[in-house]
Automatic annotation (TrEMBL):
Protein name: DUF695 domain-containing protein
Domain DUF695: start-end pairs: 4-133
Organism the protein comes from: Paenibacillus sabuli
Taxonomic lineage from the root: Bacteria, Bacillati, Bacillota, Bacilli, Bacillales
Regulator of ribonuclease activity B domain boundaries: 144-244
Gene3D superfamilies, per database record: RraB-like
């Protein structure tokens, strides 16, 4: 099974966290013996004082993370599951084979990286409770998906700051709940589109609702809309099923892609003709 890394932000009453987690471990396990939680904490305030330039700081943190990977996970008795980043610290988490992992590795790392004031810690966590804390909620999963979609649009040349119709799909178990959501969506400034048939793999939600709003698709914009719509759907026993929009590209970008498609089609014809001659 492949890794499923997701990055998202979480705000508690105490602090703002940025979490990177491999969600694939939610459905797989390396071994029942991987019950030891290992954590490595990097003091970011100290690191910033040593490396005030942001680029230099990032490069140093990347080198330290690679070194930790080489020392902790490379031996085959520990797996890296994610990290939590706050303004003050960076915490990296691993789960290790309680019987086979050499805890001296942590002590040696502390000595080797002593100038950076790195602290290591291990404790039993057979239920993977720390990992469960790091897993995204349904809303956080939607925000991860938002980031992936927006970055994909940017990569394809979309001008994400240009307004366009942004569509949202919601599904419900009862027609009354669907109607209630329609009224609320209109009050919030959304346009009601034609309802569409729900996916066949979600028969428990037979009533679909499609709404739209004229807006840009900057990440903060779609995140705000999802934060608004997903809880409303949940309150009515429904589910938020995602968003979509048409791409907005510059004239030059469209022309460039059109030429690319034309050249690719010519290349295909030529290859086919060559194959026939052979």
């Amino acid at each position: 099974m492949t890794e499923q890394w997701g990055f998202f932000e979480r705000k508690t009453k105490d602090e703002q966290m940025r979490i990177l987690v491999d969600s694939s471990w939610e459905t797989r396990s390396p071994s029942e013996s991987y019950t030891e939680l290992l954590s490595v904490t990097i003091n970011l305030l100290h690191m910033t004082s040593v490396h005030p330039a942001r680029r230099e700081l990032v490069h140093m943190l990347e080198r330290i993370e690679r070194r930790l990977e080489q020392s902790i996970a490379a031996g085959g008795h520990a797996v890296y599951v994610g990290r939590i980043n706050t303004p003050r610290r960076l915490e990296l988490y691993y789960y290790a084979d309680a019987e086979r992992f050499d805890r001296e590795v942590l002590r040696r790392l502390e000595q080797e990286l002593k100038p950076y004031r790195i602290l290591t810690y291990s404790r039993p966590d057979p239920q993977w409770e720390r990992y469960s804390f790091m897993l995204p909620s349904e809303l956080e999963k939607a925000l991860i998906h938002n980031a992936q979609m927006v970055y994909a649009l940017i990569h394809r040349g979309d001008h994400i700051d240009r307004p366009r119709n942004v569509y949202h799909w919601l599904m419900f178990k009862r027609p009354d709940d669907c109607s209630a959501m329609k009224e609320t969506a209109e009050q919030l400034g959304y346009r009601i589109e034609d309802a569409r048939t729900p996916p066949v793999d979600r028969p428990e939600f037979p009533y679909a609702l499609v709404i739209s709003r004229w807006d840009n698709v900057r990440l903060e914009t779609v995140n705000a809309q999802v934060r608004e719509l997903l809880p409303l759907a949940d309150e009515l026993g429904g589910t938020y099923d995602g968003w979509g929009s048409m791409m907005r590209q510059s004239f030059l970008r469209k022309g460039y892609l059109g030429i690319q498609r034309m050249l690719r089609s010519v290349g295909l014809v030529r290859r086919r003709e060559t194959n026939r001659e052979m």
